[in-house]
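Hello,

Following up on my earlier ticket. Below are the two sequence lines again, exactly as submitted.
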Amino acid sequence: MSGIDGEYLKELERKSVAIIREAKAQFSKPAALWSTGKDSTTALWLCRKAFFGKIPFPVIHIDTGCKFPEIYEFRDRMAREWGLDLLVAKNGEALRKGVSPEKDRFECCTLLKTQALKNLLEEERFDALFLAIRRDEHGIRAKERYYSPRDSDFKWDYKDQPAEMWDLYVKPSEDFSHMRVHPILHWTELDVWQYVKREKLPINPLYFARNGKRYRSLGCMPCTVPVDSDAKTVDEIVEELKVSRVPERAGRAQDKEQAYMMQKLRSLGYM
Amino acid sequence: MKVVVLGFDGASPDLVDEWIDHLPALGRFKDRGVLGRTVPPVPAQTPVAWATFMTGKNPGKHGVFSFIARRSGTYERDVAEPKKLKSKTIWKIVREAGKKAVTINVPMTDAEEGVTSVPGFLSSLEGVPQPKSLGEKVARKFGIDRVRGDLGTETLDRVDTDPDLFFEEVNEITEEMAEISLCLLQEESWDLFMPVFMGLDRIQHFFWKCVDPNHPRHEESEYGELVRKFYVKIDEIAGEFLKSAGEDALTMVVSDHGFCPVHTEVVVNDYLAEEGFLEARDGEIDLEGSMAVSYGYGDVWLNVKGREPRGVVSAGEEYEKTRDGIMECLGKIEVGGKRPIKAAKRREELWWGPYLNEAPDLTAIFNVGYQAARRPLITNGPRRYVNLNPRWSGGHDGTHDPGDVPGILGIVGPGIPKGKRVEARLWDLAPTILDLMGIPIPADIDGKPLALKDPG
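Thanks for your patience. The regenerated structure is below:
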């Protein structure tokens, strides 16, 4: 990796660590969401860096009961290795009633993810949640929202956002439940993989290609579709992303271009 | 005359009518000019419809038939992209007339010599300003090397679990697009200026059920309100353009299609398999051994001897008999006592022109409420033949009857009489714009200029 890339990653890391420390200082009972995916595992790693190896708040995994076996294995292994205070959020009632994406995808997610988390937040009264949301495309206004307040119903009004200067941030008063904090909002997918490579982070094996396919993000088994790829290592994923989404895009291989477009059409629902 | 065209992908005339009292800029089109509807081509899909808009032609003459088409002479699926567009565009006609066109985020546009543009959806250059000098200007003014014209896959993949993030991002992108477009409107020289805003299309696919009380899965939620607010935002943008376009310019608003509810998806390939037109092994479609397959839009492609690498249907009589058989099979499909398919059409009944041989052999036209299941799949599970919970609750590209999903059309400016009723087809708009700009209309264009200045 060139020196410039190294400096760039260091700057991303510095900003994220600062956000994490600031949030920890401002809120009395934070927690982090962890899907075991690359983004939230990177965020946990940054939390460890922020607090010298030991994360001083609980880590929540939302278990929908239909995750890949690799997810549970990875979760339990890392929880041991990193000494995580792991909390599992599970909507047992909905699972017993037999909610499934075949019946209703929207309801399934709402009950098994959102409601499960809501129940846990009500019990534990966390006032801040770290989420590993990213922005892959950078906008013009630096209006990146590292902080996003949610009310008790998880609702949020985009018009009513606090000022983007997160360090000047003041809690909104009415019906405030918790603050969502996005410490890696400014990272792209490629940034994450380059950082994983640099830090030699452990990664869920589902990301690596088997039989010409790999997962780009991890979710529940029924609703997660693998993408075509031959990338079997972190290095190969970095290379794959470099050619598939360079900003200049001149001379990009035709099949990569088509693969990107297919992925977008799938995300939109056209495929 | 100079012309500004504001493209709002997927804007629905029904919702505009319903909310017109809250949309003062569109209200101005209605009060002082024209506000009506425009009928898209078949299929009413974004790449096909914008291609028809910018060429003034039916797909048989521009060569773009679908998001996903079969690559000629193969069984491969091709994604629609600008280089598949084979006809001259209005941008080129304008340039050849010695005038200047600026396009921003128009789907299916690429870098084109002599045209100032930010290529849009489906271009490999999406968001990268052309020529380079425009890129430098955008970088200097806004600090970015790409214009975000559309949502990223990350946010789209999360729409079910984090709809708030989806709305946040679509609003942000739209505001940025408006800011950049308004800046270029002031600073670039142009005779024809056209930005396209993609947000409404993306929003309505996922949240149509929230604004349609007749949708079987209708939900009264704040997301319906966010859809309405987005129409207000679009209207504010139209208002800004009306203010900035100048007294001598004419302003148009147009959408490539509208929307209808979708509650049930039909897996066309399951029916083809049942009637013996399609062969499958272990859940995989055998493309070489099948007589026909659908790639996901109600399009049906036959496997013809001498045309496909391993054709099984002979050209001529057998081809026609097979088409008749499939049309009959599709026509009699029933779901819960109702017919999802309104009609199945042969390609020559839908299109005409030199690229007709690249079109799907048949197209199923779906009734409102239904659409074809995407991806060329067959199911063997309990949901065989239909999916009662599609990810989308609104659609337009099912393939639907274009009359069921019309787009909006508004025109206001010098010489446009007020309150005139206009019934347009999407291919009428290119010749209308050329006519207004005083540029001769090429003879092979299918559309006709709208008779805007006639009384009554």
